[in-house]
Amino acid sequence: MFSGKSEELIRRVRRALIARRRVQVFKSALDDRYHGIGHVSSHDGTGVDAIPVRSSLEVAELVHPDAQVIAVDEAQFLDDGIVDVISALADRGARVIVAGIDMDFRGEPFGPMPRILALAEAVDKLHAICMVCGNSATRNQRLVNGEPAPYESPVVQVGGHESYEARCRRCHDVPSAGRYQIDLLTALQAEPAEARVLTIDSLRKRA
């Protein structure tokens, strides 16, 4: 979040419209922030009209046969079928633009995004700025009353500045009782020796 992904999608959609391409924009109906569910908006307020959808099936049903450019925002909230839908659209010659968050607040792969990233011809991975140290941020820190949300919290929770901060790997914190109680003897069996050092370092960070 806060990396400019929706802003970049909007920029590409507008360029396609200037080029007189037939464009359709879809977004997850879960995201009703800013200008509502019928609009793709960036955090700075720019936006374009979009069709809200709750599933990949709706995208397949609503996409126009003559659409030349199809954009999908917040793809992480859609089901895994969206991968097959956008692949089919690309196979028929459409240009498909997808924006989404690749990791959830836990720092784990989010929904269909890993498969989308693997199958895409080109990937632009945008980074925000860590709100703690100012380095490049790759994680989303969910906050509850100003404190890090526990690992057991629901994966999907739509929110903005009031609920999330951009964080780097070092400053990202997901507390959970017992989650990292790993058997050290098992961890030390990792090979080669370099892997042992990485494992120990990662355990120390999470202790």
Beta-strand fraction estimate:
15-25%
Amino- and carboxy-terminal Cα gap? 26 Å
What is the share of helical residues? 25-40%
Major β-sheet annotation: 4 strands, parallel
User: Radius of gyration, Cα only, in angstroms?
Assistant: 19 Å
At CATH level 3, the topology of the largest domain is Rossmann fold
Please count the beta strands (DSSP E, at least 2 residues each): 11
Question: What structural class do you assign from the helix and strand content?
Answer: alpha/beta
Topology as a string of helices (H) and strands (E) = HEEEEHEHEHEEEEEHH
pLDDT < 50 runs, ≥5 residues: 180-184
Q: Strand order of the main beta sheet, please? A: 4-1-5-6
The first-level CATH class name of the largest domain: Alpha Beta
Q: Count the DSSP helices.
A: 6
CATH superfamily of the largest domain: P-loop containing nucleotide triphosphate hydrolases
Count of all domains: 3
Give the CA-based shape: elongated
CATH architecture descriptor of the largest domain: 3-Layer(aba) Sandwich
- The whole-number mean of residue pLDDT values reads 83
Overview of the molecule:
With 207 residues, the chain is α/β, with parallel strands linked by helices. The protein has three domains: 115 residues, P-loop containing nucleotide triphosphate hydrolases (Rossmann fold); 40 residues, 2-Layer Sandwich (Wheat Germ Agglutinin (Isolectin 2), domain 1), CATH 3.30.60; 29 residues. 28% of the residues lie in helices and 19% in strands. The chain has six helices and eleven strands. The strands form four sheets. The protein has a four-stranded parallel beta sheet with strand order 4-1-5-6, with helices on both faces. Strands 10-9-11 form a three-stranded antiparallel beta sheet, with no helix packed on it. The protein has a two-stranded antiparallel sheet with strand order 2-3. A hairpin with a 5-residue loop joins strand 2 and strand 3. Helix 2 runs parallel beside helix 3. The protein is elongated, with a radius of gyration of 19 Å. It starts with a helix and ends with a helix.
